[in-house]
Specification:
231 residues; alpha+beta; five-stranded mixed barrel; 5 helices; 7 strands; 25% helix
Length: 231
């Protein structure tokens, strides 16, 4: 591999300094929340062009959105433009590597959510661009404290849910993870359905994210006590 910079430097814009245009990456089941990190493996020519263009900007932001129809993004047709959900999350490229076969492996750090105000003509490289409205989510960039009301219960319910989906998680070191980081990471990593992940993205705050996650886990057969529901 030919490594790119492992640390691309500080970036701490105010709300008003965010870019007025944003490239978007429609990707089913990819949830990025403010404060979260999302690894991506980029190989399509249009999205390689998008990454190269983003790396040349001061903010290095890419907007992650989900198609309304799950997997509508799977086609490799360059002119395919599936309808997307109107709320997404802008992520900053904080590290990247270019592979010998020309792919980009990068990590996005979630900065702030946005609502799509309008879609712009397709960029020269073949990727989509939008005018984002960050204002409804300005609090994503604010400093605030968050604490789980009942962390042991949340972890118990999460663990039971992951068992129902035959998913594994390395629980070592999880006690050292701060509550806000834990909730964001678990929301992004949990094997939820695309529409369920979109519901988490649209929650107003982390308290609502926790409530929504517990409700979703219960839908999938886990009781509020962390036990499997009998049907």
């Amino acid at each position: 591999m030919r490594p790119g910079p492992s640390n691309l430097g500080p970036f701490d814009p105010g709300y008003a300094d965010l870019p007025k245009e944003l490239p978007i990456f429609p990707l089913t089941n990819a949830l990025l929340l403010a404060g979260g990190r999302l690894p991506l493996n980029v190989f399509e020519p249009r999205y390689l062009a998008m990454v190269r263009a983003a790396l040349q900007t001061p903010d290095r932001l890419i907007g992650m959105v989900q198609p309304i129809d799950a997997n509508a993004d799977r086609t490799l047709q360059a002119d395919h433009m599936p309808a997307v959900h109107q709320i997404g999350c802008a992520g900053r490229i904080v590290s990247f590597e270019e592979t010998p076969d020309g792919r980009y492996q990068l990590i996005l750090s979630g900065l702030i959510r946005f609502r799509i105000k309008e879609e712009l003509p397709m960029a020269k490289g073949g990727y989509r661009r939008i005018v984002p409205n960050y204002q409804p989510f300005a609090h994503d960039m604010a400093e605030h404290e968050f604490q789980l009301a009942d962390r042991p219960r949340f972890l118990a319910i999460l663990q039971e849910y992951l068992k129902t989906r035959q998913a594994r998680l390395d629980w070592k070191g999880i006690e050292e993870v701060a509550d806000d980081e834990l909730v964001v990471a678990m929301a992004q990593m949990s094997p939820l359905e695309p529409e369920e992940k979109q519901s988490l993205l649209e929650c107003p705050d982390l308290e609502a994210v926790v409530e929504m996650m517990v409700a979703l886990f219960e839908v999938h057969g886990v009781t509020s006590s962390g036990e499997h529901r009998l049907h």
